[in-house]
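Budget justification aside, the reviewers requested a transparent look at the raw inputs and outputs of the sequence design task funded under Objective 1. We therefore reproduce one unedited record. The lines immediately below are the structure tokens for a 103-residue chain.
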């Protein structure tokens, strides 16, 4: 069982719709953890609940996390592209087009 803090983070991540992404910092802010992006990263890494779409959380520049690559090269990007998330030539998700506004 995870902590109440992690559960609050997971509840927010579950709200990110398919085809959208949020940043670690954005989730931290919404969870009441300003400057808590690293905590959100730890929560994503610890998550074993398949109902939490961890792949929809990217860094502040829209880049994916190499931790997902244990399942294959560019695994997180592949999952996001299958949902319609677009990436630029530098491998960054288009946060303007695909960023989740938190509502």
């Amino acid at each position: 069982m995870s902590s109440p803090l992690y559960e609050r983070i997971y509840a927010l991540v579950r709200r990110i719709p398919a085809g959208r992404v949020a940043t670690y910092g954005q989730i931290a802010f919404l969870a009441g953890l300003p400057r808590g992006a690293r905590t959100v990263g730890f929560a994503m890494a610890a998550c074993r609940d398949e109902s939490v779409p961890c792949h929809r959380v990217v860094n502040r520049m829209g880049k994916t996390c190499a931790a997902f690559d244990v399942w294959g090269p560019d695994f997180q990007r592949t999952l996001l592209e299958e949902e319609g998330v677009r990436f630029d030539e530098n491998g960054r998700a288009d946060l303007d087009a695909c960023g989740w506004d938190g509502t």
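The chain has five helices and two strands. The helical segments are 4-14, 24-30, 37-46, 75-82, 95-98. Computational costs for records of this kind are itemized in the attached budget.
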